[in-house]
């Protein structure tokens, strides 16, 4: 059974029973994706007096404390609070809608003279502005970088100078009102850039004309079976009052409902 979703005056349809999960799980231990020198996720059983928060250890319930680093441990969504000192710049305040029309685009990063691998504006632009979906401008862009190795699920990125975006691409997305950017990389910016974070600044237009509702979601993984095209995106986050939260972006194939 299809549900309808109106967008730009058109009745699109999607199947609520056919979610495509593009998040990575936040599991404990060293086998998970990691970047920016984050400690691995850790779950700790809570003990209070004779109570033990582990059914396996004889307790009545599981009750654990979680240590995690949103920017370093897995799929996460961030707002402009990532690069701002403003106390109100928290994701729970910035992200107030959770369904968006999204375009999934696959793109190959290009080696630069200095050895960096960079996703270029011209490659993304050519994809976005061509094909059957080019006439419908989305609210969100999901970038799948090629090659799409499954090792993206477990890669240890720290110190490897991972692929990042050309700042002009972030500028283009802001100028074209793409509010939500999702990608399978640790960051839109170079791992070590002396704190410039050029693409972050360009995407949020911070501080000159800050796009306070815009978000960036990093460390997603889009399986090969999911084809480039139009989707309904459900961007789920926790209500952490922080610049970033672990997140669970879900895609639903979007059909022309006419
Ligand atoms: N490239 C920045 C560091 C940076 O971007 C960063 C550092 C810690 C956690 C997350 C970061 N960026 C994520 O997008 C720098 O060199 O100062």
Automatic annotation (TrEMBL):
* Database matches in InterPro entries: KFase/CYL, KFase_sf
List, alphabetically, the Gene3D superfamilies matched: Putative cyclase
What is a GO molecular function of this protein?
arylformamidase activity
Any one biological process term the GO annotation gives = L-tryptophan catabolic process to kynurenine
Q: Which Pfam families match?
A: Cyclase
Q: What is this protein called?
A: Kynurenine formamidase
